[in-house]
Amino acid sequence: TLAFVVAVSGLDGRPVRLTADVTRPNGRTMTFRSDPLTAGPDGVLRWTARWSDPDLWDTDRPTNRCVARVTLSDERGRLIDAALPVVFGFRELWISGRDFVLNGVPIRLRALHNTTANAPADTACLTSALTTCRRMALFGFNALITGHYDFSPGSTGYLDALLEACDRTGIIVCFSLPHIKDFGSRLDDPVVAARYRAQTAWLIRRVRQHPSVLFYAMNHNATGYYGDQNPLKINGRYELPEEGDALRGVWSVRNRQQARIAERIARELDPTRPIYHHQSGHFGAMHTVNCYLNWAPIQERSDWLEHWATHGVKPLFFVEWGLPHISSWSSYRGPHFIWRCEAFQSLWAAEFAAQFWGDAAYRDDPPAIGALDHEERLWARGQPFRWSELYPPLCNLESQYQAVQALHAEDNWRSHRLRGVSAMLPWDQGHFWRRVAPTPLRPHPAPFGGLKQPGIVPDRLGEGRQYIHDTGDPAAFEPTAIGRAFLRWNQPDCAWVAGPIDDPTSKDHLFAPGQAVRKSLVVLNDRRRAQTVEWAWLLRRGERDAAGDRGRATVAAAGQARIPIEVCLPGDAMHGEQLVLLASVQFADHVVQSDEFVLHVVGPPASPATPARPVRLHDPRGLTAAEFRRLGIPFEPFAGDREEEEHAQQEQPGPHAAEDVQPGARGAKWTGKISHGVRRFLYANRRMA
Length: 689
Known about the structure:
five-stranded antiparallel sheet, alpha/beta, nine-stranded mixed sheet, 13 helices
């Protein structure tokens, strides 16, 4: 259905007709004529026409746009007025369970934060916006969220070029609508609600014909709650309690009530687009969250969506995903928000990196020394300071910062995609690239082109702060370690050696000679069409191939294939030997991705040596004794009242032994009689009150 919404004035209730000449992408024009129409109280003519075979706009078919030329005439057909041509596109979007579905095919968003609409003219113009979209696509990103989180005075600049660029290049837009905070969070007041409606209506009129605008976003960082990152509550089922006197004044509850009013107003103005609230937890159509897990283990982060992928019923959008986030490298741990407070704090670059790189993290190269000198100068002022003052030298410590982020992203990002995450956006994107050469200020290549068209054209083009915002030579930037990780793991085509089909994120790598190895080859296809891939794997032992296989697989659009890899290690493999599992997948257009996984050979465990002197076990409840028997560890029971402790080789208190070692208790005597050279092990003690 083709819907026309035409604002008119000066008709004084007279019936009129609309005629629309619509030019399709192939150049053919179709004409639609309305019956007599009368404007409603709002001064708007509304009319729909049937169109059975539109050319659907999609991310891989962005040229499928049409041009509508609408004229207004009286009942006799005499021309009254003609509107300017409007470019638009047809596409269908809906939500099905955990998926966004575009034109009948699921689509998953890999997004970046965009500030084009907040920027000066040389960044906000069409030339720069097109460059941004194309460079985003080179690194596998297919969507953006607009960085104007509100429309307070001075926060927003020129919008149209970014929207036009996204339409042309197939980049999806999550467009921000007004924020409740700028209306005093008083939308329950009809006067305030009317102001909100007027501003929102103006914005929606600006963007509604753009097919790339798939979502509306609103009320950024205002509707979340404690526990919205909890993986067991990320499922679209958990409901935040909001009723009762005790909750009436709670900040998040009050904001969520206001946000529902804002969403209702926007939905009345445009019911065709899903609306989400940035960082809201489960609210409305989906679960959105700023997910900053700091130093949670890499494997745990990779399995964060296990519950959602199994039990979730709504889409999940990581609107901000900490890689980990740069502020995780600060020693400050609250209670205030790190970006808005002053505190005495340190840059723990080496300390946090050491868990991954060992002693190498403490290497005193010039950038590391410079970071310490910078920190010392801040402390020498004798006043608390902001994190924004402390962190800049960290960006020069690639091994301690970007390489650590890359180590996480290489596993976390692909694992989230494997689980089918609906949408995600990595934070700290400005550190994906490093400038290696200046971009000179230069004249715009066509400053007088299109003078009779709307839009801004700057006289000169300057350098952009990020690679994606710079219109100069791409060689002026190079990707950092985290940038290279996204270049590999963020593409529509993605493949790697994973764990077994039923446990694909596992990293089992220790195997005995002759043992069966179960792995899988995961193939993701986030293109908009199914494709047939050619795959191959082999097990390399030294310079020889010990085993291998190859074949083909058809992978659905937005789908995945998991190809089993089952092989036995050679029976004569030696302890300490390493074998490498190599795999490659050739996608359409000759795109090839390769991966490898190292298998370590371990010999059978040696039989435990029998102690020269017996292990004496003080175990009042017998729990450890049962475990020792299961493991075949010989021991002698020890009641705690003998005087021969000095003759024992080892004393082994069981998990409840501490309960028997209290002042005046039977077991207390022996604790002070352990002679030199006798070892005592205490483990698994229950926490004492």
